[in-house]
């Protein structure tokens, strides 16, 4: 077990070894049990995490703020329009100044082509760890919670399980690629067979797909891509049906919305869940577009673990912050 993680950045799970990630999961399980017993540690007493939100949030902001409180530390919420970022201050100066005050900097910035680049520029100039609270490429904290949830149902040896990651149709706005991309990267490393299903226009970033294939080869597992939704559900142990935008295909929002509306039948419903194994899990990072991405009978049904999955954001993030701060 690798435990020397103080000061380590968390931009993507790809930057962490499997042993380092296992350390995090071990600590998360311990902290979750202690949370249930009402026991809290002051591991981060006197330390502060700055959180910059370029995009709105419910679960991410709440879980990170509560994590810092329960660890005895302090969190500071920043909106860019209340910072000198709004007057043109760049990532270098922001990182150098804030890392003189804070012991960690967390950022949520999902704008396609900009978010991950900004996080990496912060990392280059920061004296403290940078935490990705979601960017245009990765959503690593969410995927840690997903994997913890899976192990709570299937045990820590997840080799041989099938997870189906499927696109779903959700109109109104174009969602980032970060959740499915982080899923296919982490799950292949932990021995799960992954089937990714999406319409042709909704492909993921080619370099992420290539990395997932490499992860699968190194782990000796399957990684398959299909343009048929049912392939993600067939004999699956876990399904994660989740909408994302056709951002690799087009960055034009109007065109993207038309493409989403082209496939209204891509929905997680009882008929598709019947294709999965009897013990299968339905997962979603939330918010889910009820009636568009998923039917009520599925998200509120016996296969659904979405609220357990959401709670686990708190526990994995407490473990993460404890280790790196």
Mean pLDDT: 97
| Residue share in β-strands | 5-15%
Summarize the biggest pleated sheet: 5 strands, parallel
Let me know the number of strands.
9
What level of helicity do the residues show? 40-55%
What does this structure look like?
The chain has about 325 residues and is α/β, with parallel strands linked by helices. The protein contains 12 helices and 9 strands. It has helices at about 20-35, 60-70, 90-100, 115-125, 140-155, 180-190, 205-220, 230-235, 255-260, 270-275, 295-300, 305-325; strands at about 50-55, 75-80, 105-110, 130-135, 160-165, 195, 225, 240, 280. A 5-stranded parallel β-sheet has the order 7-6-5-8-9. Helix 5 crosses helix 12 and helix 6 packs parallel to helix 7 (about 205-220). The two termini are about 20 Å apart. The mean pLDDT is about 95.
Short structural summary:
This protein has helices at residues 18-36, 59-70, 91-101, 115-125, 140-154, 178-189, 206-219, 229-233, 253-261, 270-273, 296-299, 306-324; strands at 48-53, 74-78, 104-109, 130-135, 162-166, 193-197, 223-226, 238-241, 281-282. The protein has 325 residues and is α/β, with parallel strands linked by helices.
List the helices and strands and how they pair.
Elements: H1 18-36, E1 48-53, H2 59-70, E2 74-78, H3 91-101, E3 104-109, H4 115-125, E4 130-135, H5 140-154, E5 162-166, H6 178-189, E6 193-197, H7 206-219, E7 223-226, H8 229-233, E8 238-241, H9 253-261, H10 270-273, E9 281-282, H11 296-299, H12 306-324
Parallel strand pairs: 1-2, 1-3, 3-4, 5-6, 5-8, 6-7, 8-9
Helix pairs in contact: 1-12, 2-12, 3-4, 5-6, 5-12, 6-7
């Amino acid at each position: 077990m690798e435990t020397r993680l103080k000061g380590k950045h968390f931009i993507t799970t790809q930057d962490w070894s499997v042993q380092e990630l296992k350390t995090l999961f071990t600590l998360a399980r311990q902290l979750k049990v202690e949370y249930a017993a009402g026991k809290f540690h002051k591991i981060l007493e006197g330390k502060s995490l700055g959180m910059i939100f370029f995009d709105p949030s419910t679960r991410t902001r709440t879980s990170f703020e509560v994590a810092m409180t329960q660890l005895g530390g302090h969190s500071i919420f920043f909106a860019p329009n209340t910072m000198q970022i709004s007057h043109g201050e760049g990532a270098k100066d922001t990182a150098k100044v804030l890392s003189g005050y804070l012991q960690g900097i967390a950022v949520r910035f999902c704008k396609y082509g900009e978010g991950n680049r900004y996080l990496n520029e912060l990392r280059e100039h920061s004296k403290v760890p940078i935490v990705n609270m979601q960017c245009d490429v990765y959503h690593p904290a969410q995927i840690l919670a997903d994997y913890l949830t899976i192990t709570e149902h299937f045990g820590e040896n997840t080799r041989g399980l099938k997870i189906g990651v499927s696109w779903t149709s959700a109109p109104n706005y174009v969602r980032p690629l970060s959740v499915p991309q982080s899923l296919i990267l982490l799950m292949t490393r932990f021995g799960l067979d992954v089937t990714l299903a999406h319409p042709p226009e909704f492909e993921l970033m080619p370099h992420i797909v290539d990395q997932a294939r490499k992860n699968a080869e190194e782990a000796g597992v399957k990684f398959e891509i299909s343009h048929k939704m049912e392939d993600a559900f067939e004999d699956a142990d876990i399904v994660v049906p989740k909408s994302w935008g056709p951002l690799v295909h087009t960055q034009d929002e109007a065109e993207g919305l038309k493409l989403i509306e082209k496939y209204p039948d891509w929905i997680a419903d009882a008929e598709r869940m019947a294709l999965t194994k009897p013990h299968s899990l339905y997962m979603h990072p939330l918010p889910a577009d009820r009636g568009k991405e998923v039917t009520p009978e599925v998200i509120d049904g016996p296969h659904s673990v979405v609220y357990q999955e959401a709670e686990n954001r708190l526990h994995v993030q407490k473990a993460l912050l404890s280790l790196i701060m």
